[in-house]
Amino acid sequence: MINRVTLIGRLVRDPDLRRTNDGTMVASFTIAVNRNYTAKDGQQQADFINCVVWRKTAETLEKYCRKGNLIGLDGRLQTRTYENAQGQRVFVTEVVCDNIQFLESKSNNNQNTQNKHNNQGYARNQQTRQNFTSNIDSLQLNNELDDIGAYVLEDDIQF
């Protein structure tokens, strides 16, 4: 069975670092992951995903990451249950992180927040440049694949 999760998102709040009864460090946090589409009102939708990380990685996350930081993570999906103070059974689904990557520097995050509105034109120009470059790359790839029929027989294709 495969149970792997890879996500990129922004921290919704500062990580919550605590210590278990046996002294193991654990941090809980939530990331917002944008969906690939926008709602009818033009607002981009996001999923808010609960995550947990253990030991030294938990300490590092709490030390260097704050609300709004962009991170990438890799882990597994876990479900568990517990009984709350009112005696009700609570079901929890969360990502147990194996690896976390900080995807922007602390100074970069501060600059992005302060200059968000000043750089919108620059970002649009960069996006246009990236789209243009990727279109050229795909054109070159398509040209290279035009002659592939001379090398591949129908019997060689397995589907």
Structure description:
The protein is an alpha+beta fold and 159 residues long. It has 2 domains: 5-109, Nucleic acid-binding proteins (OB fold (Dihydrolipoamide Acetyltransferase, E2P)), CATH 2.40.50.140; 115-147. Helix content is 28%, strand content 40%. The chain is built from 3 helices and 6 strands; from the N terminus they run E-E-E-E-H-E-E-H-H. It has helices spanning 55-64, 106-114, 120-145; strands at 5-11, 16-19, 25-38, 44-54, 70-83, 89-102. It has a 5-stranded mixed β-barrel with strand order 1-3-4-6-5. A hairpin with a 5-residue loop joins strand 5 (70-83) and strand 6 (89-102). The protein is globular. Residues 112-152 have low confidence and may be disordered.
List keywords for this structure.
single chain; 159 residues; alpha+beta; OB fold (Dihydrolipoamide Acetyltransferase, E2P); 5-stranded mixed beta barrel; 3 helices; ssDNA-bd
